[in-house]
Amino acid sequence: MEGSTTDNSGSTADSSGLRIPAAVDNIENKSTDVAEGRHATLLRQALEKTVQKCLSSGRYLKLFSAFARNFKAVYDKNPKALKNIHTQFMHQLESAITEEIDTLFEEENIVGLMNELDKLISEAPLDLQHPAWRPTGNPEADIQSHLIQVKQVHKETLQSILEDLEEESARLKEAVLSKRHQLLNTQQAVQNKVKGMDQAVDVCKEMPTKEIWSYFEETSK
Question: In this entry, which stretches build a coiled coil (predicted)?
Fold first, then answer.
């Protein structure tokens, strides 16, 4: 540690003269085997900020005032000594809290759990990454979010049926047009045949039938 000395017992002392046990100092410098993910880092930062806020200068003065009131005789006799004791107490309190947090992270496998949470979030479908549904207190409005899914499925089913009917209608329409075209062609062919027969009848009517019969009678004698 910067600005610290080490005695034969393994303890270190910082610039304020505070003796920090070697175990605490090792915890601060120990690197974990598991790399911290996003949520583990955020949790550790939040805890560090909480500790710093609890041990801020404002609270430091309030605690020292409490020390002075409760140890008034010592404060009146040697206020500097009481202040040094209070400073060491604050350092030891911070070290104890830090050690407790590190122990909690290690014993409860907080880093592993937070990393598993990161993995679950990264692998979760997109629709699960949005905030979960919560009731609004209005039953009519809440039921709509549930009924809309059922109605959406029903709508998709009807849409599929409608598309099938439209395709079938298009096929039938095409078949009717094809049959109608065939009937028109047949009708035109029949009309052409009838017209030809009418012309043949007209030609027959114009022929001199008496002369033809007379010719046949003469040639048959």
Answer: 148-182
